[in-house]
UniProtKB/TrEMBL annotation:
Protein's recorded name: DUF373 family protein
InterPro entries per record: DUF373 (IPR007254)
Domain of life: Archaea
Biological source species: Natronorubrum sulfidifaciens JCM 14089
Family annotation (Pfam families): DUF373
TM segment ranges: 158-179, 185-206, 227-247, 259-281, 301-322, 328-352
Alphabetical UniProt keywords: Membrane, Transmembrane, Transmembrane helix
Region called Disordered, residue ranges: 356-376
Record has Heme as a keyword: no
């Protein structure tokens, strides 16, 4: 059996005529169409119902098994209206007394009503969709609905309207730049902002940036020391970069010939390693502090600052050796000391964790592992 399903998503039929929906059957549907046309001759849903009746009559004349029904939603929004239509479709299907498989032909008056098609398809197979458009207003409702959807969708709005807004600002900003005698700076800044925005959207960096800002905000309100540690570490990292570049320039000035790539890398590392080590220790201590406050600190987490110091000692000795600042003996001693520092810290905290962990800690570890397995 083919079910001709006329959809009135915003329930113009019920609100304007008082008809109880769903309307099932040819006579009832015709009465509903006449009542709606009488109440509001300009309503496009009148054409939907009459189109459904036309399809019904055409198929019935061919002796095909067919039924017509009118289902409506409400004017409370797309989600609520879609649910209402789904419930009425269930009522229509339950009222059909047939042993045949039922398929549907959906009749609508535009793109907005067609948003309910997935709801209908989840209940009954759909053979086709017939859109009824008044000849004097072809594509008008579809254009309106498309523009409305673009303006309501945050992602589409950000993708389309923000670049368009920046482009429209170029001319007034150019006038301001001319008045300030800096047209090149203003146009360059505007172009750079537009380019950075398009690149971030193209690479999908917008969501990652939003997540990072949200995490930073939560860390700030939660009083987490990690945020402060990251800020200090970033400052130390910049200072390390400046110090490394200064050391490289000093090495180049002190060398008469060309400076090789290994020596250049060694100079940058030698000048910046102490700052980078301080940044690494700062971030690890901040993380350890937050883990301790949260009650999730484990002994092996304390290895982090010692590992940073071990790596810093090794890199400092290697870079100093390439710059002829130290001899082979100092290099060997530094490599040994760095390795021993990492090994000793690992063994120390491993032994401390095994000796000092109580039954409660074991139970907490078991519960933590259970929660992780449940998430997987």
């Amino acid at each position: 059996m083919l079910l001709v399903l006329c959809v009135d998503l915003d329930d113009d039929l019920g609100r304007k005529t008082g008809f109880s929906t769903p309307v099932i059957g040819r006579e009832s549907a015709e009465a509903a169409a006449v009542a709606l046309a009488t109440a509001d001759p300009e309503d496009s849903d009148v054409n939907v119902i009459f189109q459904g009746l036309h399809i019904y009559d055409d198929l019935d004349a061919r002796d095909e098994s067919v039924e017509v029904a009118v289902v409506t939603g409400n004017d409370e929004g797309d989600v609520s209206a879609n649910r209402e239509v789904g419930d009425e479709v269930d009522t229509v299907l339950a009222s059909l007394s047939t042993a045949e498989d039922v398929t549907a032909l959906v009749v609508t008056d535009g793109a907005q009503d067609e948003s309910v098609i997935p709801i209908i398809r989840s209940r009954v197979p759909i053979d086709g969709v017939r859109r009824v458009v008044v000849r004097q207003a072809q594509n008008l409702e579809s254009m309106y609905y498309t523009i409305k959807q673009v303006l309501n969708d945050p992602e589409t709005r950000g993708t389309v309207l923000i670049p368009l807004g920046i482009l429209l600002l170029i001319y007034p900003l150019a006038l301001i730049g001319t008045v300030l005698e800096m047209p090149g700076f203003v146009l360059g800044t505007t172009s750079a902002l537009l380019g950075l925005y398009l690149i971030s959207r193209g690479l999908g960096l917008g969501e990652q940036l939003d997540d990072a800002v949200e995490r930073a905000r939560r860390s700030l309100y939660a009083g987490r020391t990690t945020l402060l540690a990251y800020v200090v570490a970033a400052t130390l990292f910049v200072l390390g970069g400046v110090s490394g570049i200064n050391t490289l320039e000093a090495e180049q000035n002190a060398t008469t010939g060309d400076v090789g790539v290994p020596v250049m890398l060694a100079a940058v590392v030698y000048g910046s390693i102490q700052w980078l080590a301080a940044a690494g220790v700062t971030t690890s201590l901040g993380q350890i502090t937050d883990e301790y406050i949260a009650g999730t600190l484990e002994w092996r987490y304390l290895n982090a600052p010692f590992y940073v110091l071990s790596i810093a000692v090794v890199l400092h000795a290697v870079s100093a050796f390439f710059l002829d600042e130290v001899g082979i003996s100092y290099l060997a001693a530094a490599l040994t000391a760095g390795t021993l520092l990492g090994i000793v810290s690992t063994l120390t905290f491993a032994v401390a964790e095994s000796r000092l962990s109580g039954p409660d800690d074991d139970e907490q570890d078991t519960e933590s592992e259970t929660r992780q397995l449940g998430r997987v």
